[in-house]
Amino acid sequence: MKNVKGKQTYNEILGQFDSWRKNFNILRERSKEIQSFGIKNRFDNIVLIGCGTSYYLALSTAFLLTNFTKTKTIAIPASEVFFFPRCYLNKTNLIIAISRSGTTTEVLKAVEESRRINQSKVLAIVCREGSPLCRMADLCLAAVDAEDESVVQTRSFTTMYIMLLAYAAMVGGHQECFTELEKLPDIAESVTKGTKKLVEDLGQSKELQTFVFLGSGHNYGLACAAMLNLKETSLSHTEAYHFMEVRHGPFSILDRSTLVIGFVSDSVKEYEISVLKEAASVGAKVLALAKAPVNEAHYNIAVPHLSEYVRSIAFFPALHLLSFYRAIAKGLDPDAPPNLRRVITF
Amino acid sequence: MKNVKGKQTYNEILGQFDSWRKNFNILRERSKEIQSFGIKNRFDNIVLIGCGTSYYLALSTAFLLTNFTKTKTIAIPASEVFFFPRCYLNKTNLIIAISRSGTTTEVLKAVEESRRINQSKVLAIVCREGSPLCRMADLCLAAVDAEDESVVQTRSFTTMYIMLLAYAAMVGGHQECFTELEKLPDIAESVTKGTKKLVEDLGQSKELQTFVFLGSGHNYGLACAAMLNLKETSLSHTEAYHFMEVRHGPFSILDRSTLVIGFVSDSVKEYEISVLKEAASVGAKVLALAKAPVNEAHYNIAVPHLSEYVRSIAFFPALHLLSFYRAIAKGLDPDAPPNLRRVITF
What we know:
The first copy, chain A, is an alpha/beta fold. Chain A contains 15 helices and ten strands. The radius of gyration of chain A is 19 Å and the shape is globular. Chain A starts with 6 loop residues before the first helix and ends in a 17-residue tail after the last helix.
């Protein structure tokens, strides 16, 4: 079995539900400590940092935190904060640093800058307890059994999203969101089973050559993360845009070989669905990820029983499988993408 | 001559230098009015908005304004501000709205929200005096003879960049940067002439299939704009990343068919050049846009006599020609990209 292509990636994709369950329980146990850190400190200027997939996670969470806590929160790639600390860190009193391994050099250096300039507090989001980033942090949320051994992030990404969403919900007083997270694993497991055939077919499609992911608000960072997962795993031509932004230029590349994948929100879905309709009208195939099936889409994955912030993560195992099947169909090994290392240091 | 493919685009690309000269003179004449608006109002929370190429201009300028004026400035796509106004506009006391035509619906609606929520002041950056956006603004900087008739932005983009850079320099007290803008057109014209053969060859290359643009700081937004220009004009597979971010995933797609185009800064060039070197080591071709030729690059466009913020714009006519030649080589008409309209409204 050792030489089966993508075995590790496959197991980690389907191991996500267990990781979520385990870490949700840990979050619940630590909720007082987490709330006390986030609420008592009265942070009024937050900068989220990460690299690659973790930066896209930061982008998504910056929206959630701003929305849930009314606190000015921005996401910046760790390298840019390290390069231009005075540009981004003035007045920052909380830096939230995301790194699967807790060892990414750019993240550690940006955190050092933040300490030096502002004595900012540090919240670390990692998948490895005791890692250098944890040791630098005032509060460390370290996921257990979630650090993928694979190069490309799957369960580590979704588990860290859940930790950050739980943090935003606890600090912002959105208890209902935290409660919903308990239902997520079972629902997502059933959704994944139900759509396995669809994503296998789409992944194997020879007609589809370009994949464009779209999302508004918290879904933009998630669209970017799904895009990067497909790019890294299957070396496909993938792009991600804010939903309405695709109309301002990128539309030129849409044709019959394009699959447009839209994370449809609840709050502005009319606008988003009209973009999906426009994409279909120029020949693109459309996959909608939404609360209810979208008539205008050729393919749908619908998750009716979760609100939009929790729902988004339920689509990820299916999207990860899409990447997996596409890599296999192209004769690639998902476990070993070219040019990449699991941990990037310098 | 009417049916020559891309005639309009070509003329607008080479007409940039005249547009810059004319509008620089206007900026100089209006400098007291501009300084008084930006300095006397003590804006401490600025949001820049735009769509497509104008959003990428906003991204670049947000860095410049933060850096030059030490004022917290962020760039958000106009649609996202319109969708989630409370998330982005709380405390915003200046909104800088960018739209070539001054009629883009998403921009107008975001400005309306900003007025409603905060009575924010509005600075409009447009290429059409008297347009709806101008009429809503407290200060309107309207470029003359810069609005391209073409669908894809060329001279309008660079001219609006110059207006925004001039604004940042005047308000932030960086007089030397404003002064340098006077030298820009002559230098850029000579750079463009000198590199025409290079970009024609690169544009016609059958080996190159994927184009990856990289930039840090203010260059990130510019890398995105160059990416979108090439995508729209030539329907090529193009991507743009923060310089260090390309190591966290996108590196997987780099191979002998990739051209990596790096906007090299002055301040962190050692890091950037090491990324270019890494790209070359996995087989990609590298074009460096820098102050001095980069040894590690296969191709160079060097502009020694301008500082980094002004220099970046000197590369654009050459990059626009790259898009133009690639479209022609693919049998496409640069004047008529598929699926797109010049002004996007809804």
